[in-house]
Amino acid sequence: MGTWCAGPVLLEIVVPARNEAARLPAGLGLLSDALAGLPVRAEVIVVDNASGDGTADIVRSWRGPVPVRLVRCDRPGKGAAVRAGLLATRAPWVGFMDADMATDLAALDDVLGLLRDGRPVVVGSRRHDRSVVQAYALPLRRLGAVTFNRLVRDLAGGVADTQCGFKFFAGPLARAAAADLRTAGFSFDVELLAHCVRRGADVTAIPVVWRDRPGSTFSVRRHSLRCLIDLALIRARAGGGPLRRRAPQDAHVPAQAPAPPAEAVSRTAPGFGRG
After folding, report:
1. Which residues does the UniProt record annotate as the domain Glycosyltransferase 2-like (predicted)?
2. pTM here?
């Protein structure tokens, strides 16, 4: 167990799940063990995104070292599920990650250090020069990811990899950005980051160890057109260009979450060398 299990929950992790009964137990096991080893109290929120299998039953019966609670989202779409999960959070720091745990969870130590230091948005980037990335199973999927990120960098504060499912935020900022989120599908990350940037938040990208997992629900052939339409809508709502950053003092929420008491979390400089 973590060394700071008493007191308030400081970190909540959202896991969107649609028909993930096969992969969810292993993913929850890895995540629970990793969070239990952190020096803060953490919880997991699994969002059942209109699943037709036993996803919800797995969450209800889950017993592990950290609490896991269930949120239901009947609107299909990963963006809709993440939005519902973020709006259900209450902690000063929040994040979301994919059920397959493709990103090595050793990076959580670095994330926690950066959040503790006041970074408002911390994202895993497979395009970081210090990341270790297992090749995509399908070359077409890799090409699609590279092309997609080149199209949207100006919308998302210059982030080179908007689609890595490993993102963390100051809680008030995440909840305000999620409340404005309108994209229900796979392009939601772009809009969510854009809303954070518009509120004056800088985005910090960190290296990750990432492994392509079988079973992804995203298909370049089936979803590319919908993603392009969503990007056009996001850009149109931004006035035809990037969502311009406002001065932090003009934001509706603080760009940085208030830091918990010093004794609640050990202050360690992020090393970026784990994994």
Report:
1. 13-154
2. 0.79
Domains annotated on the chain, with CATH = 11-257 (3.90.550.10)
Per the rule left: phi > 0, alpha: psi between -120 and 50, beta: everything else, 19 is: left
Strand partners, 73: 49
Chain segment 217-261, per-residue pLDDT in tens: 545 555 567 677 777 787 777 664 444 444 332 223 333 344 444
Tokens of 7: 């007191």
What are the distances in angstroms from CA 143 to CA 71, 217, 246? 34, 17, 33
Residue matched to tokens 């149109």: 236
**β-strands 11-17, 93-97 pairing:** parallel
Instruction: Kindly report, residue by residue over 68-85, the tens digit of the pLDDT.
Output: 999 999 999 999 999 999
Question: From CA 68, how far away is CA 71, in angstroms rounded?
Answer: 10
Neighbouring residues of 153: CB distance < 8 A, sequence distance ≥ 6: 159, 160, 162
Identify whether the C-beta of residue 35 lies closer than 8 Å to the C-beta of residue 11: yes
* 146 CB neighbour count, 10 Å cutoff: 14
Dihedral angle over CA of 88, 90, 94, 96, nearest 10 = -10
Q: What distance in Å separates the CA atoms of residue 144 and residue 236, rounded to the nearest whole number? A: 22
Percent helix, strand and coil across the chain, each to the nearest 5: 35, 15, 45
CA nearest to 45, candidates 30, 26, 32: 32
153 φ, ψ (degrees, to nearest 5): -60, -40
